[in-house]
Amino acid sequence: MALLDAATEERIQGGPGLPQQRRLITELPGPRSAAILARKAEAVPAGVGHTVPVAAVAAGGGVVVDADGNSLIDLGSGIAVTTVGNVHPKIAAAVAAQAAQFTHTCFMISPYESYIEVAEALNRLTPGDFAKKSALFNSGAEAVENAIKIARKHTGRSAVVAFDHGYHGRTNLTMALTAKSMPYKSGFGPFAPEVYRAPMSYPFRDGLTGPDAAARAISQIEKQIGADNLAAIIIEPIQGEGGFIVPAEGFLPALADWCRANGVVFIADEVQTGFARTGHMFASEIFGVVPDLITTAKGIAGGLPLAAVTGRAEIMDASHSGGLGGTYGGNPIACAAALAAIDVFENDGVIERAQQIGSILTARLRALQAQDPRIGDVRGHGAMIAAEFVDPETNAPDTALTAAVAKAAIAQGVIVLTCGTYGNVIRFLPPLSIGDDLLGEGLDVVAEALAAA
Ligand SMILES: *Cc1c(COP(=O)(O)O)cnc(C)c1O
Question: What 3-state DSSP class applies to 333?
Fold first, then answer.
């Protein structure tokens, strides 16, 4: 397997930074983190939870360092955000330079060039060789809300279809689009109307081919909603929070074809899968689908809050002037960070690195699976790989095992995240700036945690 050559490693990691090692000086949390987390419990509501019981003070390459000097291996990237690594030097420099120029004018008051440059880059990089336009926002949920607004205005229809296991955010409309009740929706309704749910393709659990799964979904949509009432379907090409579910081949193209034939806007929510994460600039490319609209956020700007809706110009132009926007959308510092991140994505071997990391993760997890039938499935693309944990006798989701493995790995200084409708999936989303040694050590710790569980 091709290892990273030194020059590429230096480019991606941006040169020397934090010591790239796992180092536990205290149990987690150490005394300083514990004191800060005690203040969190007093000052921040319980609803804002946290996964790793430390207070971060620095991060870069493949590590997060806490207030007690513990250095943890990062296999989560702050949920797929720091794809190019924390404090990437190009991004840090761009942010500092912009902060010295101006921090805000409001793009709707006095526009600035960097927003337009980000839009031009997104229009160029997203799939589809037709005229495109982009609008910028602050978060993934806000991008999704706006994609739905645009699709409704364009079609003059109101219904929207989302899918089983889908996740689209925590605002009112995006809670309605999200499938899972706990913890995202429970008690927070009533939810936005005219949102319907269709069955997803989940090869490990439904055994259907892509075309058959699409036919099942389309039949339900036609019978229960009717194409004439449907503005859009929104789907993650690979589901994120829902369990890194990779739809069977042919599922997404069949849905996209049906949308095109029926005047329905096909929205790919690439908030988690976008920007090299899957070993492709966008995951839609893996499946050969060209969405009408794409929502992006997480990986776009190296950790600065930015999000976008990009799509066919004639759809994006549906709204009257003043119908889209927001005070902070496309903030100049976030745009500067995005332009630097896009430079890294395009020029510094990041996509190839995501593919290498995918090979390492997949090979290691499949080897573990061969010895341990509690790993029911290993799936994903690039640096977005997951293991689904099951009862080997029945294939029933094993939520308790998953939680135990994740907890033990974190206690040993490896940040891993769980996901899935049944909470029985561990997802690996390392920053692409992580070195092979550290990635391997992180996987060793997870393997030990599984063996001990
Ligand atoms: C995280 C996520 C969102 C929501 O993004 P926020 O920035 O947290 O609002 C929407 N869609 C997908 C697929 C996501 O992974």
Answer: helix
| Domain 91-347 in the same topology as domain 6-75+349-452 | no
Tell me if 150 CB under 6 Å of ligand 1. Answer: no
Indicate the residue type of 18.
L
In short, whether 138's Cβ falls inside 6 Å of ligand 1 is no
Q: Tell me which of 3.40.50.1260, 1.20.1540.10, 3.30.420.150, 3.40.640.10 is the CATH number of domain 91-347.
A: 3.40.640.10
Give yes or no for residue 271 CB within 6 A of ligand 1.
Answer: yes
Q: Are 28 and 366 in contact (CB under 8 A)?
A: no
Confidence of residue 4 (pLDDT cuts 50, 70, 90): very low
C-alpha distance from residue 435 to each of 85, 209, 357, 409, 446 (Å) = 11, 37, 9, 19, 17
Contact yes or no for 242/420 (Cβ under 8 A): yes
Quote the mean pLDDT of the chain: 96
Residue 17 has a pLDDT of 75
Based on its alpha-carbon atoms, the radius of gyration of the chain, rounded to whole angstroms, reads: 21
Closest C-alpha residue for ligand 1 atom 5: 140
Decide yes or no: CATH 3.40.50.2300 for domain 6-75+349-452: no
Residue spans of alpha helices (H) in 317-423: 332-347, 350-371, 399-411
Q: Say what the pLDDT of residue 147 is.
A: 99
Q: Which atom of ligand 1 is nearest to the CA of 270?
A: 13
Query: Does 53 have pLDDT greater than 80?
Result: yes
Q: Which atom of ligand 1 is nearest to the CA of 142?
A: 9
The whole-angstrom distance between residue 447's C-alpha and the CA centroid of its chain comes to 24
pLDDT in tens, 273-318: 999 999 999 999 999 999 999 999 999 999 999 999 999 999 999 9
Burial of 322 (0-12, 13-18, 19+ CB in 10 A): exposed
* Residue 151 CB-half CA count within 13 A: 31
Say yes or no to pLDDT of 396 above 70: yes
Low-confidence winner among 13-22, 42-51, 370-379, 390-399 (lowest mean pLDDT)? 13-22
Q: Is 269 in the pocket of ligand 1 (CB under 6 A)?
A: yes
Q: Indicate if ligand 1 lies below 6 Å from the C-beta of 179.
A: no
